[in-house]
Structures are given as C-alpha cells and as structure tokens.
Design brief:
Two copies of one chain form a homodimer. Chain A has 240 residues and is mostly helical. Chain A has a single domain, classed as Ferritin, core subunit, four-helix bundle (Ferritin), CATH 1.20.1260.10. Chain A contains ten helices and no strands. In chain A, α1 runs antiparallel to α3. The longest helix of chain A is centred in the first third of the chain and has 29 residues. Chain A is globular and about 60 Å long. The N and C termini of chain A lie far apart (47 Å). The interface between A and B is medium-sized, with 21 and 21 residues.
C-alpha cells in the first residue's frame, strides 16, 4: 500500500464502525479531504508566486507566511487519507482540473487583486468546508477544522486593502467587482466537482448514522456562506 | 523604532555587555543575521518556484516543504536583529544584490539542477555560517544554529539524484559540473560581500572578549568547507 510511505510506521487503518463502515461514505470523505488538500497545495503555489509582487519586504513575508501555513496543513490531511486506505497522492488527481481552472480564471492582475483573492478565496473555502465538517465523523471533522486555521496571518490584508482604497476610490470599485468574480468562479468550479463526484455529493444527502441535508438546508447553507462573504468584503471596505 | 512592530510587545534590547558592548561587533552581527535572513527568504522564493517543475506531486511537496522550512527560520533571525536595535527589514537591503546575483547566475536549467542546487547550496551556506557561529556571543550563536536546521527534508534529494544518474550517466557529468559552478558562484558572491561590509569582515579578525581568526585559521576553515562540499557531492554520486 502506497499510503504507508508517508507515515513513520505502517498506517493504522481507521476502524470500520459507524459511518466509516459505509464504503460510499469513506469514498466521499477521501474525496473531500483530497479536494481540500489539492486546494491548499495550489494556494501555496499561488501565494508564493504572488509574494514576488509585494511592494515591500514586510508585505512579501506576510504573504509568503500565508503560503507556508497552507502547506503546513497538507501532512495532516494526507495522513487521514492514508488512514482511510487511499493513496494520499493519487487521491488528489480528480480535483486538479477544477482547482487549476479556478486559478486560471482568477489570475490576479496586480498586488491588490492578489491580496483580495488570498483573503476572500481562503475565507470562502474555509466557510464551505466548515459547513460540510458538521456532517463528518468526529476524527475527520477534527482534521478538516484543523486544516482551516489561518493563524491570523490574513489580518494584514485587511489593513493593506483598507489603506489602499482610502487613497484611491476607483481601486475600491475594481476590487469589489473582483470579489464578485472570485465568488462566481468558486461556485462554478464547486458545481463542476459536484457534478463529477457522485459520492461526494451523496455525502450531503446523509446515510447510516448521519443526518441528511435536504434542499432547504442546502439553501440555508449557501445563504450563510454568501452572508459571510459579504461580511468579509465589508471588512475590506468593499461592496459585495 | 520599527523593530518593535514585529514582536508581540516592545523589543527587549540585548544587554550591552561582553562582545555586545562593542558597536563594531553589534554591527557585524546584524550584518551576519541579515545576510542569513535574506538568503533564507530568497531560498524560499527559488524553492517555491522550483517546486512547480517537479515531475510528481510527491516531489513537488518535498521541495515546497524545504521552501517552508527556510521561511520558518526568518522570524527567529529577525527577532534577534530587532533585539540588537536594528530594523529587521531595512538591515537586509545591503545583501540583496549579492544573493540575487547568486541566483541569477545559477538559474537551474531543469528539475535535476534545481534539486542539486537546493541540496548543495543550502549545505554550503549552512557549513559557512556554522563556522562563523563559533565566533559569536552565545545567544546569537543559538539563533544562527537554529536557523540552519533543515529537518531532514533534503534527504529525498539524495535518493532522487542517485536514481536519476544511475539511469543516465551523462546527467551525472552535467550535474558534477553544475556542483562546481554553484561552489564557484557562492565564493564569488561571498567575496563581494566581504569586500563591501567591513564590520562583517572584521568580525573574523576578533576583538574584545573574542578570539581572532588568523589567515591560517581562515585557510583551514575554507579547507573544511571544501571538504564537506566534496562529501555532499559524493553522497549524491557526483564527482566534485
């Protein structure tokens, strides 16, 4: 089994009790963890690249640290994928296209777009995964929640963006549009993944030991995510 | 004072006793810490960039982790620069040209050159700074030594390079030349820094409370560094 290569000893398989006894649930959880993992790896790449555009060394380090934090979550996520009996590298493959396309379609035109993307994109992903986490077995839930911690590095984005739009109001208008585009592209790619990965989508429909999420509940979930997005934009000083 | 922005509270200045009472010594130590810091930031940039060229996701993650480790040392180094009363961002400026030039002159042509550069370049810098550390006050020495830990991530370079040259002997010849070029360029840029930064150079000449390093001792130091470089190349399976 390839999985064991990434741990110090052989991987202890997760006990097949409760929800984990359901193969469809395990498959869905591996998919979810893999999507988050590839998202974090890809965020590392983009943030490291963006950090090269920083106007000062201080800003550069702030963004580079955000990149390192994303990468720091990867080990934990991959360890859980291995515990669930899947290959922690191969499992990521189905999510590359959607995540890569998201980044292709939202390539920042300048430093300010990079900052807003880092803050808004990371926030959106975290809100979404935090909602899903409520439907997971406790151990997987803990891993997902731990992987969403941003350790406060993105606070500096708020300072920088607020200061920049106070100086240049047209920038505020452009970045508000940019925030909408990020949200739209995130939804497009999430739908694409949902359409292609049946097990993952079925996760939200419940199963053994797990509550189901009906259409009304899914609607409320998206309403909460949209609201949090608007709060985040407002914190930056941007209309949403 | 800008220095205090990077700490949680006001920066506690280092006590001005022993070697630290000598302003020339403090200046030299700030220079040394700044050179190491800018080297690590720059290594982060290059490794993050190189990780995009990796042939597999596993290799990509290994190199991205090496990048994150380099960045992880920056806080500790900058905190010590601030303790010594200098601005931890501005102090780095005099070392940008030499470090940037090193990287411009040693831009890897492919993945294998990236791997060898990561391993040999990092090793050379660590050996050099470890030698210098013997001449520092204990607190600064601890910071420098801690910043050189690579936490074993580069072991994978040895595996990968050995396997690649076993398959393709011409690659071994090319990478052996590449290792010599890395050494040559590192010496060129180190000499450039030595010529421009008098305090740093004077550090090796000793002073209050500190042993002097005579020319014979400097010669022995370079002999040890060259020997360690040769051992590292041999470990990769390359002539030096």
């Amino acid at each position: 089994m390839t999985a064991s290569r990434d741990a110090d000893g052989p991987v202890e398989p997760a006990p097949e009790t409760g929800a984990l006894a359901d193969p469809a649930y395990r498959e869905a959880v591996v998919d979810l963890l893999a999507a988050i993992t590839y998202g974090e790896i890809s965020a590392f790449d983009r943030l490291a690249e963006d950090s090269l555009l920083a106007p000062t060394l201080e800003d550069k380090l702030a963004v580079a640290r955000m990149a390192a934090v994303e990468l720091g979550h990867v080990d934990l996520l991959q360890a859980r994928i291995a515990e669930l009996g899947a290959d922690p590298h191969a499992a990521l493959a189905p999510f590359r296209a959607a995540v890569d396309r998201f980044h292709e379609h939202t390539a920042p035109a300048d430093w300010w777009e990079s900052l807003v993307k880092a803050y808004v994109g990371d926030g959106l992903a975290a809100d979404f995964y935090r909602e899903i986490a409520a439907y997971l077995d406790p151990r997987t839930r803990d891993v997902v929640i731990a992987s969403l911690a941003d350790t406060g590095h993105s606070d500096f984005v708020v300072d920088r963006v607020q200061a920049a739009i106070a100086e240049d109001h047209r920038l505020g208008g452009r970045l508000a549009l940019w925030g909408r585009r990020l949200m739209g592209e995130a939804l497009t790619q999430a739908q694409r993944v949902a359409a292609e990965r049946d097990a993952l989508t079925a996760l939200l429909a419940g199963g053994v030991d797990r509550p189901a999420l009906d259409l009304a509940a899914i609607g409320r979930m998206f309403a909460r995510i949209t609201e949090l997005h608007a709060e985040r934009m407002a914190k930056l000083g941007l209309d949403s």
